[in-house]
Amino acid sequence: MKKGKVDALLGIVFGDEGKGKVVDCFTPRYDVVARFAGGPNAGHTIIFEGKKFVLRSIPSGIFDEGKINIIGNGCVIAPDLFMQEAKELEAAGYDLKSRLHISKRAHLILPTHRVLDRAYEAAKGKNKVGTTGKGIGPTYSEKASRTGLRVGDILGDFPQKYAALKARHLQILQDLHYTDFDITDEEKVWMEGIEYMRQFPLTDTEIELGKALAEGKSVLAEGAQGTMLDIDHGTYPFVSSSNTVSGGVCTGLGVAPNSIGEVFGIFKAYSTRVGSGPFPVELFDETGDKIREIGHEYGAVTGRNRRCGWLDLVALKYAIMINGVTQLIMMKSDVLDTFDTIRVCVAYQKDGVTTTDMPYDTEGWQAVYEDLPGWKTDLTQMTSESQFPQQLKDYITYIEKATATPITIVSVGPDRAQTIERK
Length: 423
Known about the structure:
This protein is of the alpha/beta class. It is built from eleven helices and 20 strands. The strands form five sheets. Strands 9-7-5-2-10-1-11-15-19-20 form a ten-stranded mixed sheet, sandwiched between helices. Strands 14, 16, 17 and 18 form a four-stranded mixed sheet that branches. The longest helix is centred in the middle third of the chain and has 18 residues, at 158-175.
């Protein structure tokens, strides 16, 4: 029997590209959908049949009732937020407990992790990272320092382990003079979340995936955030706390590199970024505001304004290289329907130096643009590539030539049906 493959579907710039929608569309082609990194700091929005769902920890393949979904070991989970998210799906009629499997090796986000997150951010003063305050960073920090709690711990002497880690956190907070908080009610709901999680299959998901691949089954690995927020390869320190790139699939799910097949890279027809950090293509004018309003560029979890700008080829080509992207998926093309001219960043410039390579530090670099004509056409009603205006076809060809990577899917609206595969 031919061994199965793991295809990776990744956000390849700053995240928020619409991964959830594409995973939802792709799920019928796969046997398993698995999240390999991140936590409830990122929301994957899915819209179909007039309904809208925002998933934070649960894989976006959950709506296909015939498929197993996995939260892998590379993820971090907040039991209270997981319970809230899962119960909303159950209330909508989706059976989760038989087909959502959780890795025993995934780490738990404690209520005190969230307090630590706020305390550390406050201590940074003007150098804030722009964290969501969900406790992601402190949890991954403790994973690295070998002091964290994992999902599998709830099956053993959990109360003692929890009390010891909580006491450690409280001592750190006292040392930081950050004591004005009360987690009593939050902790109660968190403990309810622990009991709720016990109802799900808590498994050795790396073994489960290994057996599935040996049986020739196919797996879709769903990423979170984007390459420029990767802890190693992103705009450090303004990054997430996990490896969001294709290499994170191997470590975050326990699959071998030779199991990786296609690497789908999702990007928007323009650029956005949430939180602090350098963003050379950011627009501070009416054009940026217009993109934000048309694209509804507000965080799915936090509601924060997303910073908007034109497409950044420097970042896009860098991400394609880092991830080994084999196919590109261009999202939210319809947002640019009304623009006379569409600009594309082809290089960065600073102190008389021009580069097309991603610098170690992008602070202070200015974007160098090339202009293309807009298509001035409503794309939202189109159902095939043959209906695309020539200017959109030219834009697609321009990007493909610059990146040496084919764009195989173009999204022309938020609904599942507004996803056009190119021949």
